[in-house]
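I have been asked to look over a protein record a colleague put together. The record follows directly below this note.
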Amino acid sequence: MRKPARRGPLQIKGELVNSGSRSDARATKPVIGGRVGARTELDGRSVILLTANNYLGLAGDDEVIERSCAAARQYGSGSTLNPPLATTPLHEQLCATLAAFHGADSALLFNSCTSANVAVACTLVGKGDRIFSDRLNHASIIDGCRLSAAETQIYNNRDLDHLERLLAQPHDGARLVITDGIFSMEGDAADLPAMIAICRRHGATLVVDESHAAGVTGPGGRGTAAAQGCVGDIDLYTGTLSKAFGGFAGGYVAGRADLVRRLHDDGRFYMFTTAITPASAAGALTAIEMVMRDDGLVRRLAENTARLRAGLKALGLRILGEDHPITPILVGDEDKAREFGRVLLQEGVYIGAICFPIVPRGEARLRAQPSAAHSAADIDEAVAAIGRAARAVGLIDNAAAG
């Protein structure tokens, strides 16, 4: 029998399934050809990138890149050691800086925030315990709950009356409440002061995933707790290095020393893997130090967010959330959302279409995300293009699109 020909990247490229669709239709993912910033090269063409998690634009920052490269030259591409066996000064300094950033006792690094969330759910509670998880929590939290030996109870999104009713049920085991600080598909914030009070009434540990908040919201970009005036009252944060802090692979926990110690000593998703690379540690450390030194990028991000949201509202589009950079443009129909994204890319702006199973059926959307790297002119150009694309697919009428 003749062996099938080996397929190179160009052949494979055309066979990738659209991440927003469960159908058999094949789609092509754009191929990035350079640094990610306000604009980037996709399939050989320069476009405005308005769908990345590069909130502060630091994924393409020269200082961040140089310090990352310097660490690779000094330490090599990776330690190839499990984290409990050895560390580097860079990893230790990054942990200390993350703890200081969050006003926490200590911090611990993971390969990703997904690993951190799974470790929390599987290590801090177990058989006979209960996890209370928001219905719209990130997929990594959901998967951590599924893998945990603890029982999971789901409360409706940001419905704290529902949460309290669940917590009030008689139970002898430990209770762990976990929530996104900022919900990634809506851009809404959890009410942390109210959650802190509820957890204290019921003896529950509160964990907050700050992946879309650290470096983004609150004074100095210190996150949801800082924005709501409750720094120091959260038991444990989880977070990522892959968004505001330079786009590096890596995640972390930061919080009470006893909880961090348990994750260090017993967390299988911490122990049985290789540590993040020295290059990632150095680059992320540089990014966080830049944010802690000067909040200019955080303020510019807020300005760009306000400008984008105002422009989209003026077009008559339905957008979700309030003032977070996550700016979902609600479409509803999945085919129309994908067509909206395709037409918009032809107009020179890339915003990914988010469809089932990422969001419920009937709630398809384009999730726009401005960056501090964008100029006011970039935002205005993007809004104009969104208007033309929205008119072309029938989301708004000709007069509204201008």
User: Anything to note?
Assistant: The domain at 9-60+295-401 is CATH 3.90.1150.10 (Aspartate Aminotransferase, domain 1). Residues 1-26 have pLDDT under 50 and may be disordered.
